[in-house]
Specification:
about 425 residues, mainly alpha, Ammonium transporter fold, 15 helices
């Protein structure tokens, strides 16, 4: 009997042998680490990546937006966002939103378990996704939106766009029931954020002087440092989405790295061919495109497919960026839609292709067993993309118009020329 008890206790320490409903220390340790990595993506990663891309008179405003959103979205997620997305464990969830049994985490305590990790850790991990998604939108309206308007819009957006879509895909909603393959957020994170950024850029209009005045990044060194932090943090973003320290997490981490590498080299090659010289900004942007595009597919594709996805992302997102800015003349200031939106759409669709077990070296990695046909899965992926795109666009437009009526979206022309750092925060990023 003593030997049996010892073996049972020892088995709980091994990730592959946890008893259902019991906490596995290996899984828990990994998701604790992944949670910190995803938060690291927003602060300091995304904030530095974005802040370096704007002009020096607006650098602090971007940092302020990312930091404030981190704080505010965390509290909103705790209060209502989590229950809208995931509901409570003992209630059958509907197709559209979760039940409200977990307002302020009412049904979760220190002993609650989600799979093999503490329930509160699952809440915290998902919270970091709810933090970075509104922060991504900042790139669409950078250098011209009121700070107060940004806070109100993103708060409403989290509750009526992000949380419901999260429920559709990850909380047992209708897209989940259809079998949508979105491992870490092609629809939930990248398409929602990018579509909202595009709508915001169109509703607010271009920055003063856009197209006639040069608006180069003021500190590419800061941007590259932030990009490096995003790359490292993305291992937690995708690898952590396995919610276990297992082979799926390891494969997700590996394919994430391969796609980022391929995306960076593909974008670099495109610039080299088109302009005669590769740029560091192009390379890090291609890296982000590769990361965003592999995100929905990270749990359902193998290494060879990841390289194809990354190379495709680098080329397609490169052309999408130029088309949006040069042909459509839309001032999506920091290229949120052509990188994250186009990448999210591309990755979600390609997940439906490469998750097939019948593609030889390009076959899925085992997560997608049961996929009957590429055509059938691809149609599910397309429905997921289209529904997320349309819902996000319509609701984001309504929210922007509402906030504009209530408090006004945009600073004045004179305030924009002076810069948001001084106008909105009475501070300078550089005082040399």
């Amino acid at each position: 009997m003593k030997i049996l008890k010892f073996m049972l206790a020892a088995s709980m320490l091994l990730p592959g042998f946890a008893v259902a409903g019991e906490i596995n220390v290996g899984d828990t340790a990994w998701i604790l680490t992944a949670t910190a990595l995803v938060l690291f993506m927003t602060i300091p990663g995304l904030s530095m990546f974005y802040a370096g891309l704007v002009r020096s008179k607006n650098v602090l405003s971007v940092f302020m937006q990312c930091f404030a959103l981190t704080c505010l979205m965390s509290l909103l997620w705790f209060g209502a966002g989590y229950t809208i997305a995931f509901g409570s464990a003992d209630v059958e969830q509907g197709k559209w939103i979760g039940d409200f049994g977990n307002l302020f985490l009412a049904s979760i305590d220190i002993n609650s378990v989600n799979g093999t990790i503490p329930s509160v850790l699952f809440v915290a991990f998902q919270m970091t996704f709810a933090v970075i998604t509104p922060a991504l939108i900042v790139g669409g309206f950078a250098e011209r939106m009121r700070f107060s308007a940004m806070l109100v819009f993103c708060s409403l957006w989290l509750l009526v766009v992000y949380a419901p879509v999260c429920h559709w895909v990850w909380g047992g909603g209708w897209l989940s029931q259809m079998g949508l393959q979105d491992f870490a957020g092609g629809t939930v994170v990248h398409i929602t954020a990018a579509v909202a950024a595009l709508v915001a850029a169109m509703v607010m209009g271009n920055r003063q002087g856009y197209g006639s005045v040069a608006m180069p990044p003021h500190n590419l060194t800061m941007t590259v440092a932030g990009a490096g932090m995003l790359w490292v943090g993305w291992f937690g973003f995708n690898g952590g989405s396995a919610l276990a320290a297992d082979g799926t997490a390891a494969m997700a981490l590996f394919v994430t790295h391969l796609s980022a590498s391929a995306g960076a080299l593909a974008w670099m090659a495109m610039e080299w061919i088109k302009h005669g010289k590769p740029s560091v900004l192009g390379m890090v942007t291609g890296m982000v495109a590769g990361l965003g595009t592999i995100t929905p597919a990270a749990g359902s594709v193998g290494p060879a497919a990841a390289v194809v996805i990354g190379l495709t992302a680098g080329v397609v997102c490169y052309y999408a960026t130029h088309f949006l800015k040069q042909k459509l003349k839309i001032d999506d200031s920091l290229d949120v839609f052509p990188v994250h939106g186009v990448g999210g759409v591309l990755g979600t669709l390609l997940a439906g292709v490469f998750c097939s077990p019948a593609l030889g070296v390009f076959s899925g990695n085992g997560f997608s067993e049961g996929i009957s046909s590429i055509g059938g899965q691809l149609s599910v992926q397309a429905i997921g993309v289209a529904s997320t795109f349309i819902y996000t666009a319509v609701v984001s437009w309504i929210l922007l118009k509402l906030v504009d009526k209530l408090i006004g979206l945009r600073v004045s022309v004179d305030e924009e020329r002076e810069g948001l750092d001084l106008v909105l925060h009475d501070e300078r990023g550089y005082d040399l």
